[in-house]
Design goal:
Number of strands: 0
Shape: elongated
Order of helices and strands: HHH
Largest sheet: none
Radius of gyration: 15 Å
Helix content: over 70%
Mean pLDDT: 90
Strand content: under 5%
């Protein structure tokens, strides 16, 4: 697997996770946002975030099994994995 693709999916998943957290927090605060921003946050947070996390997790599993893997920041991977498990819990168990 190409290491640039792995890094790209991890970063996109992290950005989508930030939107997911924003989607969780916004109903508890009185924010006035433009409609296009709300639509973008919902699209990235609720729709793309679980899909990108699953893809990033599978790429992580593939990358960890390779002997010649290049290092990638562990905090990004950790945040993506924790977010994936929380999304599974949130979408399927709540």
């Amino acid at each position: 697997m190409n290491q640039k693709l792995f890094a790209f999916t991890q970063r996109v998943a992290l950005i989508c996770n930030i939107f997911f957290i924003a989607c969780l927090v916004i109903p508890y605060f009185n924010f006035v946002l433009p409609q296009f921003m709300v639509s973008m946050m919902l699209m990235f947070g609720w729709v793309l975030s679980p899909i990108m996390n699953i893809i990033a997790f599978f790429f992580f599993i593939i990358n960890i099994r390779k002997p010649d893997r290049t290092p990638f920041p562990g905090l990004v991977i950790f945040i993506n994995i924790v977010a994936l498990f929380y999304q599974i819990f949130h979408f399927f168990l709540i």
